[in-house]
Amino acid sequence: MSEPIIETRNLTKEFLRDEFHVVALKDVTLEIPQGEFVTLMGPSGSGKSTLLHLIAAMDRPTGGEIRVLGHNLRELTDREIAHWRNENVGFIFQQFNLLPVLTALENVELPLKLTHLNKAERLEHAATALNLVGLGDRLGHFPRQLSGGQEQRVAIARAIVTDPALILADEPTGNLDAASAQEVLTILSKLNKDFGKTIVMVTHDPHAAHFATRVHHLEKGELMPDAA
Amino acid sequence: MAIPLTYNLRNLVVRRTTTVMTALGIALTVAVLLAVLALVDGLRVTLATSGDPRHVLVMRKGATSELTSLVTRMQFQDLKFKQGIATGADGQPLASVELITIISLAAEGSDTGDNVTIRGLMPAGIAMRHNVRLVSGRWFRQGVYEAVVGKSLSDRYPDARLGKKLRMGRSDWTIVGVMDASGGAQASEIWGDVNQVSADWNRVLYLSSALVEAPDAVTAKALVNSIGDDTRLDLGAQMETDYFAQQTQSATPIEYTGIFVAVIMAVGSSFAAMNTMYAAVARRAREIGTLRVLGFSKLSILTSFWLESVLLAGLGGVAGCLLVLPLNGHTTEVGANFSQLAFAFHITPGSMLAGVLFAIALGSVGGLFPAAAAARKEILSALRET
Predict the structure, then answer these.
(1) Whether residue B376 sits in one domain with residue B345
(2) What are the strands, taking DSSP E only, across B22-164?
(3) What is the value of ipTM here, to two decimals?
(4) β pairing state of B146-150 and B171-180
(5) Does the predicted model carry a pTM greater than 0.80?
(6) Is residue B337 part of a domain?
(7) Do B3 and A113 make contact, defined as CB atoms within 8 angstroms?
(8) With a CB-CB cutoff of 8 Å, which residues 113-132 of chain A face chain B?
(9) A 184-213 near B (Cβ less than 8 A)
């Protein structure tokens, strides 16, 4: 087995909501090796999205340890996390989250603005990423001019344009029809197999889980032992 | 590197109605400020071009304006032979004793009268005003009831046009000429023979002031001291340029009132910009969350939204300049020392730049709080907002 790219030990996330104490994640200990395509499954409120957000350092744990790509995320400042995320993590949202006023090419170029590449290099990289997801002919299109499936493919191009080691996807097929969902899953599978990207995907869809190399189940904030 | 400016510009275009409304509010504020500055600047330019550095204005000691001054003919006889006064082509000293008084004239379409300055002066007085020239008609003759009116007056008052008879003092005066003064205050006066004017106003012996010309500015300054120190004359003297510079103080209340109004409007405009930007931040919460996930720092978010506010306000500033530009060169009048003074609105590139900077300052202040609110948003809560 390869080196673990993600390691969590007794990872816990608790918070107060309307005076109620909520345990979103409880003592999750998990290792995800490099090059895996992992899906996190479970009913609503099981803590799978919370775990994904903690891996992406979009949220801070209240207990336990989390190391991603060799970094102890609890020790990084906000600014260091922003830089780390830009370099190492590509994130795909259920609702695509493209910036509506920017074209497909400009949306994909956006993360490269934080690199040292010049404008021509940025555009070249962005165009390559869009070609990779089969949208080489839609560079100048605005999100409103694209179908849901195409929007999600632009979002995938944006997630991979900085060549991150880790791709995190939060229900990437949740808003898509079956055909578009199949396309998106095929692309993710290709990124895993052909480009060696480690992928962690949250999904409700058992069909989507078929593309994964490993499936973890969560329930009530706990990792189910059969999958650990 | 920062979030691209294209993102902000296109967002301004997308919500064009609120952009236009907010920019218009800022534009009106800038327009008010620029109009006031143009008014004050125009008045200052007029008064500044009215004086000649070789001229010395002689008045009663302590008098601050010609209207409240008193110079007797005897004093003038002693004055005109003082050393340092230049001589004219006729070999006579370039010195003119003058009587300044006012009459009431009704402007076109107005029932109420405005105070207009009448100046009785000697031929040397005309020769000394190098900025004054006739634009139509001829100069008045000595010993008759003839007058020449400034162009500004002739344009504004129907009774003061060429060929008209104007009731002044106890007589009817014929307007025989129209003069212009290259932007100077003399274009707002009516001139006549000093002897006729003083006789008509019963002030043959007691006139208002005297104007003398020195060969150069240095001699003029020496002359000011010489006259002031002359105890026999008992008169005060000052450079004509200094006199007009002091008259610009009449613009100060206008300037302060205008700036006060502009500041009040600026507070309102700043709140409008703030409101617009708060709405933009609320509507684009998910975009803010996405940008943070992509790796943009809180400072990048703050800068981006702040710049958007500055752009919006800058747009308003430019629109404000365009709104006020037609006023440039437009002639208006103001009451200065109890009489009307005509001058043109004077809009300079400098004042327009000041207007745009003023707008940007509004946008900066108004945009800072919404931009800070955008930067403070937690990623997850921002992503969950719809």
Answers:
(1) yes
(2) 55-60, 71-72, 95-106, 113-121, 133-137, 146-150
(3) 0.92
(4) parallel
(5) no
(6) yes
(7) yes
(8) 113-114
(9) none
pLDDT band at B273 (very low <50, low <70, confident <90, very high): confident
DSSP label at A226?
Answer: G
Q: Residue A101 is nearest to which of B10, B293, B295, comparing CB atoms?
A: B10
Chain A residues near residue B295 by CB distance under 8 angstroms: 82-83, 85-87, 111, 114
Residues facing B39 on adjacent strands: none
H/E stretch holding B47 reads helix B16-48
Number of domains in chain B: 2
- State which amino acid sits at residue B177: G
User: Using one digit for the tens of pLDDT, what is the confidence trace for A32-57?
Assistant: 999 999 999 999 889 999 999 999 99
Q: In chain A, whose CA is at the least distance from the CA of B284?
A: A99
* CB hemisphere CA count around B373 (13 angstroms): 16
pLDDT, mean of residues A139-148 = 95
Beta bridge partners of A39: A201, A215
Q: Does B135 contact chain A (CB < 8 Å)? A: no
**In this structure, are residues B72 and B126 in contact, taking their beta carbons and an 8 Å threshold?**
no
pLDDT score of B318: 95
What b/e sequence results for B175-196 when a residue is b if at least 16 CB atoms lie within 10 Å of its CB, and e otherwise? bbbbbbbebbbbbbbbbbbbeb
Do B77 and B159 have their domain in common?
A: yes
Contact criterion met (CB < 8 Å) for B2 and A113: yes
Q: What residue type is assigned to position B215 of the chain? A: P
Closest-CA distance of chain A to residue B305, Å: 15
Indicate the range of A187-196, B92-101, B103-112, B164-173 predicted with least confidence: B103-112
Residues B31 and B66 in one domain: no
Is pLDDT of B172 > 80?
yes
Q: Are strands B165-168 and B171-180 parallel, antiparallel or unpaired?
A: antiparallel
- Domain of residue A187 covers 4-227
CB of A151 within 8 Å of a chain B CB? The answer is no
Cβ contacts of B10 on chain A, cutoff 8 Å: 101-102
The pair of structure tokens assigned to B116 is 């207009």
Q: Do residues B110 and B186 share a domain?
A: yes
Nearest by CB to residue A114, choosing from B13, B290, B296, is: B296
pLDDT given at position A227: 44
Of B11, B297, B380, the CB nearest to A101: B11
B386 at A interface, C-beta within 8 A = no
d(Cα A19, Cα A2) in Å, to the nearest integer?
44
Q: Would you state the structure tokens that stand for residue A73, as one six-digit string?
A: 């995320």
Task: Single out the residue in B213, B238, B269 at which a domain terminates.
Answer: B213
Residue B208 lies in a domain: yes
Contact A99 B290 (CB under 8 A): yes
Residue B244 lies in a domain: no
**pLDDT exceeds 80 at position B44:** no
Q: How confident is the model at residue A228, as a pLDDT?
A: 40
Contact A102 B10 (CB under 8 A): yes
Which of A101, A107, A175 to mutate against chain B (most B CBs within 10 Å)?
A101
Q: What is the mean pLDDT of chain B?
A: 88
For residue B95, the enclosing domain spans 55-213
Is the pLDDT reported for residue B16 higher than 50?
A: yes
How deeply is B236 buried, as exposed, middle or buried, from its count of CB atoms within 10 A (0-12, 13-18, 19+)?
A: middle
Check A99 against B287: CB less than 8 A apart.
Answer: yes
Domain count, chain A: 1
User: Do residues B61 and B290 lie in contact, with contact meaning Cβ atoms separated by under 8 Å?
Assistant: no
